[in-house]
Amino acid sequence: MLNRKSVIVFLTLVITCSIGYTQQNVPVTLDKLAGNFIKNIRKNTEEKLFVGTDKWFYSTGETIWFKIYMLDAVSLRPIHEGKNIFLDLVNDKDSVISQVLLNIGEKRTSGNILLPPYLKEGNYWIRAYTRNILLHDSNGIFVKPVYIINAGNPDPRSLTEAYNKTVVDAEDTSAPRLLFYPEGGSIIAGTTATFAFRALNARGEPLEVSGWVTDTRDSTATNFKTTLPGLGKFSFDAWNPRKYFAHIKWKNNRVLTYPLPHIDQFASQLSLTDQNSQTIKIRVSLGDSLYNKNKKTYLLGISRDSLCFAASGTNMYDVLIPKSSFPKGRATLFLFNEEKENVSQRSIYIDTGFTNVVIETDKSVYGPREKVKLNLNSSSLESHPLGALFTISVTDDRFSTPLPEQDIFTAFNPDNVELPEVGSSASPGWNKKYSPQEIDLIMLIQKNLYSGWKYNMPIEQIAASTIDPDSNFLSIAGKIEGKGNKPVKGCLVYLQSKTKTIFQNDTTNENGHFQFYVGDFDEGERFDLKVTNLKGNGIEGRVILENLGFPQFATPGQLKRRFDKSELNIIRHFKTHQPDSTLFANENRVLKPVNVKGTKTKGALYDQSKRVSTTSYIITSDQLSTGDPNALVNAIKNVPGLYTGMTSTAGTSNYLLLLDGVNANNDMLASVNPLQVDFIEVLRGPETAYYGMEGSDGVILVNTISKTKEVTTVDDKGTAVIFPKGYFKKTEFPSPDYDKKEKNKNTSFPDLRSTIYWNGDLQTDNNGKVGVVFFTADASATYTASVLGVTASGELIYKQIKIKRQ
Predict the structure, then answer these.
(1) Measuring CA to CA, which residue among 760, 787, 786 is closest to residue 112?
(2) pLDDT for residue 569
(3) Half-sphere CA count of 620, side-chain side, radius 13 A
């Protein structure tokens, strides 16, 4: 309540979210203030990354399909700043399992990671970052948890709550820390003072407390208690010159006292007095030294980097703000005095949005291997088409339980809202699960924005560096070793690429090191090396390529979110009830070790200890590193005496495919990166007897390596072919075309794909529409189509629909 004698209600002015506004009724000072403030907000661009994946838990041998969105950190609009985005998969010790380099400049930001069958079961994390993010604040990197199942190498501890707690500490007996957040930043005498408070232990964990507030007259002003993890709220009528204190009872009935901020007679304050589904009522209050002196103030409502509301008034007044002027999410109200100083601010949450996304399919129920037509329509609430970027994944609910719609915000907080338990899955989708009163409590604890802003600050863009730190990132470097693995110094190394019309040379230093700057190239691109002495004679030995300079750093602990009890229960239930349906988690399909007697060939380019038969047909890695995305399938198709009938996406014959000794669905062959293959062994005829009738037409054993091969043999003529790691080359999601009769009729191998469709690069047309086509799998199931996207205006979209397969 307001205890002043009078309230001046000022006519408000609403301005929609934009900056280039001009209206005759807008006071010049308000217009200039708003324009200056918005320009300063927009003057610097910082990137924020978000990664969407097709699922959140996987079996070894499956493929993670991902899409990276780069957004402006303030506006959340899609941007393409810089050049390189790094993405890696790490384990609990931050050991890198896989690394991918993507070219944001060319808008190549989707890809896939094949999960090796040898991975230990447990928690893993996807990290996405740029050099710029690491340079300014490593806490700004994107980190997303995934869980990987491996029946052949399980770890039961990883599915227990105790194991998933990063620290197990003794009981904390120290006094709690209470932090107080007065609404609008100050207490004004003669008004109702509202406080949010946060209760934390010594480790920064939330505490449940209750207590009371007294004044210097020893009168009880109000009582309070936490209503969210570590958070609470209370109000009381503030009177000058009284001082106020908060008290709680702690262990052994000990009373702890915390002084509240003093009443400030020179303060100005914003407070929220009422709200409904349509409007928010805000009160502007002034301290005793300012009240009734015709002091003018200016109120701006900002969402992200746009002005959505503006008003001005004199002395104390109420303002009614329509929610329809703001996009969905956090907005901030700023109050400026006559000197254009930011004297108060208040965060509010808008629960309605500008965007409407409709997902429709052509039918309600489908049969096996039937075509599905799915259409998306993105529009404003006024039905105007909206441009958007979308990612679609369609997963079988038997193999992967999709996260609830609100949980997409667990790892990505689009409005930079400080949640009750940072890093805890108790707070994903807080805007969905919490009541309006609880949401407003969270708004009260938000940090102040642009507190250092001055009206006369220069509005100049920070000049971009003329030297791109990533411009020379893709170099080809390594060293030459001769006999006895000793470095060869002073030799000539020639590099040639027919596709890039490159011919360069370098001389090795005393460590045998060489380096070439060749510009951008894709992973799997072929380069020819020639190594000679000064007389031009070839030097035999080997070339050891250096790794790309991926940044090395430890993941900030607070970003390594682990799965909570409910999520672990989902995985545990899946493992218990679906072991025979999983593509790669069936331990009965893992081959037993086979001992092979034979001799190791000198200079062999693969690990012969993994070979099953001494008479089998071998495809070595150099035959696969051609740069052709279908090199692996094509090499197998050309094996003499083996008929697979396979295309670049799937097989149609009764052959058996095993990936590192684990039975694999034939459709997975197309997603295997040729650069991660050590060698392929093909068994034909009597050699297949060990595997039974399932492999009567042949057995294909794919043996992978944990990292791309970095050592290449240089022959006696001094020549070698290298395939250095470059930018990720997009791999199409392997989706069978069951419109072809020969594929539709072949049921020798049932279609048990857990992800039946994935597309990370969808963009709406001028009408805000986009459509996709895919095919169902074999078993009766329910599919979930998950749509993730961001509109041109910066709204994050996440929706799901169910698709039934009889």
Answers:
(1) 760
(2) 86
(3) 9
* Amino acid residing at 254: R
At 430-471, the pLDDT tens digits run 444 678 899 899 999 999 999 889 888 776 544 444 445 565
Q: Which residue has the higher pLDDT, 251 or 262?
A: 262
Residue appearing with tokens 């062959």:
669
Q: 762: Cβ–Cβ under 8 A, 6 or more apart, which residues?
A: 376, 389, 390, 391, 392, 770, 772, 789
Nearest to 707 by CA among 555, 591, 472, 545: 545
Q: Say if residues 558 and 139 touch (Cβ distance below 8 Å).
A: yes
Please state the length of the chain: 806
Tokens of 497: 């690429």
The H-or-E segment that residue 30 falls in is: helix 28-42
> In angstroms, rounded to a whole number, what is the distance separating the alpha carbons of residues 356 and 327?
12
Structure token digits, residue 531:
């190594």
Distance between CA atoms of 621 and 777, rounded to whole angstroms?
A: 32
Alpha helices in 406-475 (DSSP H): 430-433, 436-444
d(CA 642, CA 682): 8
pLDDT interval class at 792 (50, 70, 90): confident
User: Counting beta carbons within 10 angstroms of the beta carbon of residue 28, is it exposed (0 to 12), middle (13 to 18) or buried (19 or more)?
Assistant: exposed
Distance CA 450, CA 342 (A): 9
Report d(CA 527, CA 139) in Å as an integer: 38
- Which residue is associated with the tokens 């090395």? 552
Write down the mean pLDDT value for the chain: 82
Can you give the pLDDT at residue 662?
A: 67
State how far the Cα of 234 lies from the Cα of 276, in Å rounded to an integer. 21
Of residues 38, 16, 8, 37, the one with CA closest to residue 322: 16
Handedness of CA 647, 652, 655, 659 (dihedral sign): positive
Instruction: Give the CA-trace dihedral at 360, 366, 371, 372, to 10 degrees.
Output: 10
Vertex 357, ends 140 and 432: CA angle to 5°? 55
Exposure string (b/e) for 447-472, b if CB count within 10 Å is 16 or more? eebeeebeeeeeeeeeeeeeeeebee
Considering the entire predicted model, what is its pTM? 0.79
pLDDT in tens, 28-54: 589 999 999 999 998 877 889 999 999
Residues 608, 600: contact at Cβ < 8 Å? yes
Residue 397 is encoded by which pair of tokens? 């609910």
Q: What pLDDT does residue 703 have?
A: 82
CB atoms within 10 A of CB 437: 10
The residues that bridge with 515 in the sheet, in sequence order, are 477
